[in-house]
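Instructor's aside before we start: the two examples that follow are unrelated to each other. I chose them only because their records fit on one page, so don't look for a connection. First example below.
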Amino acid sequence: MRVLCAVAVAVLLSAPAYAQMPNINLMPEVKTKTQEEKDQDAVNQRAYKDSLSKIPDAKGSSDPWGVVRSDAPKAAAHPAKPKTKTGSSTPPASSAQRSQ
């Protein structure tokens, strides 16, 4: 009786796990294209490339805020000064000035 209960428990526990397994054929039959399908693909590719060549090139900038701005963006008025280790932008004093 215990063996029958153990088998029943094993079946009941494995049934949900088995239901989650996808039914995938890992070795599908290889389907090759016929000559007609290859010709149709070539025609489709040619039509696609022709349709791409009919798309006009973009003219000018597509800047929606271009009419709002008065002129082109300005460069920085003052170049940034490199900071020293202390964090100040002034050059350090020379040793001759310190001794006086």
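Example two begins here.
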Amino acid sequence: MKPTENVDYQHPTFKDQVRFGLITGLLVTIICAGYFFGIPAYWLGWFSFAIAAFSVAGNDAVQTIGTFFESKKSVHWIEKLLVLGSLLVAVHLIGWWIHDGEIHFHRLSVIPEVSHFNLFQLLAPVILVIFTRLRAPVSTTFLVLGLFGGSSIDKMLTKSFFGYGIAFFGALLVWAILAKLDPHEYNEEHVPNPQTELKWARYQWASTIYLWVAWLLQDTANIAVFLPRKLSILEFGTAVFLILLALFVIIRTNGGTIQSVVTEKSDIKWAKAATIVDLVYGSILLLFQAISNIPMSTTWVFLGLLAGREIILNILTYRDLPYLDTFRKVSKDVLLATIGLVVSILVIYVANLFYPTSNLAL
């Protein structure tokens, strides 16, 4: 019997890429065939919802549980699935019950419900799958909700870029204080005390739960937009099952290829560092949740947080490291996200040309 090999999901082989290409092509074919052969919009929406559950959660997993994966590689995947899965069910069940069958937590209140999907809307989750495979931290809000957003797109852009700025400058302030209080802890060669690491490992479970809830309240809408606004108990159960299945795949692949966005950042593998990132990020999301119901890009908020953190830590502690390396890490993430934004706007523009009456706007 051959020993079990550890699969490197962050660096897929050529065969893996070919397999991915074939599956992606099959999904596009099924959607196009269903659309042109007149399959009811209800079923087409469910099919795209299933893909979106994997693509949206897969791309955004790096923001919410990426730090958790990085510092909890020794924790068995069943424990992770039980905690995060149970919380996912509980949050959506409470939302479904309180909001009379709705699971978007008012994020879709400003977005008109569609009775007939256009082809671009149905294909958006597949486009997102491709970006995720390319390790690009794309805004799922812009790429998916942008095709449904109508006149709200400019407001989503404004809120998202404002979120990036708040996260960036907030990170500068938070980690400047932390680095000044204990500069040794943020030194590149620092290895935490095992007892201290164990204590913070417990705290991280709480911070991950906190962030997971904050993210679900913000980004479930990016998936739920393909479903009827109000779900029956059977529809709700099916939707939650599909999202749970997506979560299972994400956990089993340890975040997939896009996990590298977190892996290369400074000291995220330690529990204390990951815990503080989760708490700051979750607090920013909840702040914007309370400000308005306009959907926003949590991706840009996360990238702003990581950028501010990397820059201030390198300035204050890593004086032997070339600043160009820090700039490269930060700018690469922003560049990929910007490319995703440009592609999203281009897709919306082209969709406007083909479907000028589909409530799309730039």
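The longest helix spans residues 323-354.
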